[in-house]
């Protein structure tokens, strides 16, 4: 590790401005400034915090959600764009790694996107949630393997997943195998009820233990006025309460500071990165405790693209799919080997 052995980090539990992207962005910039005054070197915001998480999609039937869905399109973030430039500048001024969840607009589609800015303002990672959950599938498109990547930052090796991606053990293992030191987890908060907070806690503590890394988790928060603005139905409003578990967890699965489950606030903790080796000395799930000859993960890191172009074919040129790449070569070799075995097999 070339970075400092101790890193001060923060998890932000915060309410978005449900009326405008600009209002939420101001809250982001204010939180970065507040954290900088406390000496924070890495900060994590909630899932799709800018402009806001699409709470409407959880309580409104599809036939009634079109207006809010279109408003989300209007307020969503483009990458790069003015919002990413503003966050990059704030990260650079503070010398802080910033992990921000956004609704990303890419032409006619929205994505649940996580951005990791380094302390010099460089955008080190833009990843999209690989599988939106339940109601979210009517809001966001799917991400790809290109985002399952750990990046080197001024705070250490950082990986990120959103919400129920933490229930996908192979997605988590992909980051573990890249030796993440700080895992940035993001959940919407103010959703489902107290049981969701309990599930979040179990999930992030288990990942910290299994991966031998620190987890910094941020969840959002809605005020009672905001809940009422999403739906006037008192019964449905109950589905927009609870589910908050902003927390910072050590590689031993322990809370470094007490978690935040109600209201807005900023959790701050100093991480002793030496605890990572102490944990992995006993159990390194991707090292001495792994059995890759028995069990291993194959990740396709190529970005998914709807259009591939290739140069015109000439006579005598081998024809290949425009998407042909190293994984296709491996598949071709495996297919040839299987065919050879079949040809030798007795009838």
From TrEMBL:
Question: Which Pfam family name is an example for this entry?
Answer: CN_hydrolase
Protein name as catalogued: Nit6803 family nitrilase
According to the UniProt entry, which residue ranges have a biased composition of type Basic and acidic residues? 326-336
Species of origin: Xanthobacter oligotrophicus
InterPro entries attached here?
A: C-N_Hydrolase, C-N_Hydrolase_sf, Nitrilase, Nitrilase/CN_hydratase_CS, Nitrilases_CHs
Name the SUPFAM superfamilies on file. Answer: Carbon-nitrogen hydrolase
Where is the stretch described as Disordered?
303-347
Segments of skewed composition (Polar residues):
311-322
UniProt family annotation: Belongs to the carbon-nitrogen hydrolase superfamily. Nitrilase family.
Q: What is the lineage of its organism?
A: Bacteria, Pseudomonadati, Pseudomonadota, Alphaproteobacteria, Hyphomicrobiales
Cite the CN hydrolase domain residue spans from the record. 7-273
> Could you tell me which PROSITE patterns the record lists for this protein?
CN_HYDROLASE, NITRIL_CHT_2, PIPLC_X_DOMAIN
Q: Which domain of life is it from?
A: Bacteria
């Amino acid at each position: 590790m070339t970075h400092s052995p101790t890193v001060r980090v923060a998890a932000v539990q915060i309410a978005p401005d449900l009326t405008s992207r600009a209002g939420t962005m101001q809250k982001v910039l204010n939180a970065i400034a507040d954290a900088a005054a406390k000496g924070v070197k890495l900060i994590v915001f909630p899932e799709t915090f800018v402009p806001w998480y699409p709470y409407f999609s959880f309580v409104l039937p599809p036939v009634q959600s079109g207006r809010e869905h279109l408003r989300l399109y209007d307020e969503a973030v483009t990458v790069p764009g003015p919002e990413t430039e503003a966050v990059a500048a704030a990260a650079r001024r503070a010398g802080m790694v910033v992990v921000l969840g956004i609704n990303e607009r890419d032409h006619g589609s929205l994505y649940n996107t996580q951005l990791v800015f380094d302390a010099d303002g460089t955008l080190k990672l833009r990843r999209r949630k690989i599988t939106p959950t339940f109601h979210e599938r009517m809001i966001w498109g799917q991400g790809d393997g290109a985002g399952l990547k750990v990046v080197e930052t001024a705070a250490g090796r950082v990986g990120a997943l959103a919400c129920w991606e933490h229930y996908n053990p192979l997605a988590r293992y992909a980051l573990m195998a890249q030796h993440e030191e700080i895992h940035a987890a993001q959940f919407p908060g103010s959703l489902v009820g107290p049981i969701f907070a309990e599930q979040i806690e179990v999930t992030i503590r288990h990942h910290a233990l299994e991966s031998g890394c620190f987890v910094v988790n941020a969840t959002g928060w809605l005020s009672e006025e905001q809940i009422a603005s999403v739906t006037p139905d008192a019964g449905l409003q109950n589905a927009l309460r609870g589910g908050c578990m902003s927390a910072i967890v050590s590689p031993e699965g322990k809370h470094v500071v007490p978690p935040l489950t109600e209201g807005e606030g900023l959790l701050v903790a100093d991480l002793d990165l030496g605890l990572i080796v102490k944990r992995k000395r006993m159990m390194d799930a991707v090292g001495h405790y792994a059995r890759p000859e028995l069990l291993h993960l194959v990740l396709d890191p190529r970005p998914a693209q709807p259009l591939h172009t290739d140069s015109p074919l000439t006579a005598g040129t081998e024809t290949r799919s425009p998407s042909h790449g190293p994984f296709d070569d491996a598949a071709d070799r495996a297919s040839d080997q299987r065919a050879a075995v079949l040809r030798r097999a007795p009838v």
